[in-house]
């Protein structure tokens, strides 16, 4: 912090290509651009950005859920399910159905596909049957899960972060409540 590496004095920070980058969205969009996961033109980039921002809104609710007070857990879980099934997942179901392609944008694997897969997995951890009314998303999840790098990442023992348990919640709360 004292050397100015953390531009806004907060993490995350990634050192890449001689830069010390902060801010999650900036880091992710840089990596997406670097590895050709950010569309072929501005129109595709705009679609990817819209999808990623929508997914981020859904993920924010899911990530906050473990920190809900016990009396609010059921209500918050109902809210996640309602918003996932009526607001967010229908958008992606429709997009995949309308263009009949394997990926959300330009029939090419993008950052939006990675984010959607993350959202599906995170919501399913809380609500296992959430995709029951979304055949396109079920097929998307299957295709994504069988991509070699994603398949490897989903295997037990991979670096994938496990769902937040009581110990994790307690640790985080202790850090932020000091």
UniProtKB/TrEMBL annotation:
Residues 41-163 form the GST C-terminal domain. It comes from the Eukaryota. It is an enzyme of class 2 (transferase). Gene3D superfamilies: 1.20.1050.10, Glutaredoxin. GO terms for biological process: glutathione metabolic process. Its EC number is 2.5.1.18. Keywords: Transferase. InterPro entries: Glutathione-S-Trfase_C-like, Glutathione-S-Trfase_C_sf, Glutathione_S-Trfase, Glutathione_S-Trfase_N, GST_alpha, GST_C, GST_superfamily, Thioredoxin-like_sf. Residues 1-39 form the GST N-terminal domain. GO terms for molecular function: glutathione transferase activity. Belongs to the GST superfamily. Alpha family. PANTHER family: GLUTATHIONE S-TRANSFERASE, GLUTATHIONE TRANSFERASE. This is glutathione transferase.
């Amino acid at each position: 912090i004292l050397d100015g590496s953390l531009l806004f004095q907060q993490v995350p920070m990634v050192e890449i290509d001689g830069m010390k980058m902060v801010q999650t969205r900036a880091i992710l969009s840089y990596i997406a651009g670097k590895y050709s996961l950010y569309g072929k033109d501005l129109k595709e980039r705009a679609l990817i950005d819209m999808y990623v921002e929508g997914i981020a809104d859904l993920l924010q609710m899911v990530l906050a859920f473990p920190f809900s007070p016990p009396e609010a857990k059921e209500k918050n879980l109902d809210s996640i399910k309602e918003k996932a099934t009526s607001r967010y997942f229908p958008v992606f179901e429709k997009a995949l159905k309308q263009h009949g392609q394997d990926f959300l944008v330009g029939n090419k694997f993008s950052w939006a596909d990675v984010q959607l897969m993350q959202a599906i997995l995170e919501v399913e951890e809380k609500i296992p049957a959430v995709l029951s009314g979304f055949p396109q998303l079920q097929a998307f999840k299957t295709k994504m899960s069988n991509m070699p790098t994603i398949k490897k990442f989903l295997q037990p023992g991979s670096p994938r972060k496990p769902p937040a348990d009581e110990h994790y919640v307690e640790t985080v709360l202790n850090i932020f409540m000091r």
